[in-house]
Design brief:
This protein has 190 residues and is an alpha/beta fold. It is built from six helices and five strands. The chain has a domain of 117 residues: Rossmann fold, CATH 3.40.50.150. α1 packs antiparallel against α4. Bound molecules: S-adenosylmethionine. S-adenosylmethionine binds next to α3, β2 and α5.
Length: 190
């Protein structure tokens, strides 16, 4: 990665090199409209680390939100890697594009993730998917997994019921996701 790339932590900035440079401003902008669902640091560190292990990798994120969960894998990606991030709410995604839009490795798509997965079913294959909305997690899981390369990685956030979920939200115990041949881990509650 070249020195001085805008998404990198500036030398001497006092920020940890292990944290995306735009993360704090993204989180500050998220707080203003009351967005309470950004990816936690301890969660984001995983896609960042895994993305770093796939130079030139092709990554996809479903549920951009305000972009915290986009900033993390982008932080780990090398210059040859690319990330497509899909979000249905343009206002929420605007926070992400305001901070990460200048990173030409990242493409933001404003669309429903279920429609996006359906449209791309016969298309590009990805090395890693990070899913933080219902499609690709509780809906269209098989279609999303079919988009992954052999050996591709699937990371899913918030499988445990969250306070922010609406009453009609499905949870892992009521879907077939446990039947998938994937390894699952959960972080301890803070
Ligand atoms: C838990 S938040 C994701 C937060 C994100 N990881 C971040 O760090 O900001 C879920 C996001 O998915 C979006 N979303 C929900 N359903 C969606 C759908 N069907 N298609 C696309 N985006 C969706 C919501 O608008 C919300 O921004």
């Amino acid at each position: 990665m070249s020195a001085g790339a805008p998404w990198m932590t500036a030398p001497g900035s006092g920020q940890s090199a292990s944290r995306p440079v735009f993360l704090d401003t993204i989180l500050a902008d998220a707080a203003a409209p009351g967005f309470v669902m950004p990816c936690e640091d301890r969660t984001g560190a995983l896609p960042a680390t895994l993305a770093a292990g796939k130079p030139g990798g092709r990554f996809v994120g479903l549920g951009t939100g305000v972009g915290a969960g986009t900033a993390w894998p982008a932080h780990g990606m090398d210059l040859g890697a690319s990330l497509t991030s899909v979000e249905r709410d343009p206002k929420t995604q605007a926070v992400a594009t305001a901070h990460l839009g200048q990173d030409n490795r990242v493409t933001f798509v404003q669309d429903g993730a279920d429609q996006w997965v359906a449209r791309n079913r016969a298309g590009s294959l990805f090395d890693l998917a990070y899913v933080d909305c219902r499609p690709g997690k509780f809906l269209r899981l098989a279609d999303l997994l079919a988009l992954l390369e052999p050996g591709g990685l699937y990371i899913v956030d918030d499988l445990l019921p969250q306070d922010t979920w609406p009453a009609d939200h499905p949870n892992a115990s009521t879907t077939s996701s446990h039947a998938c041949p994937i390894f699952s881990t959960s972080l301890p509650h803070s």
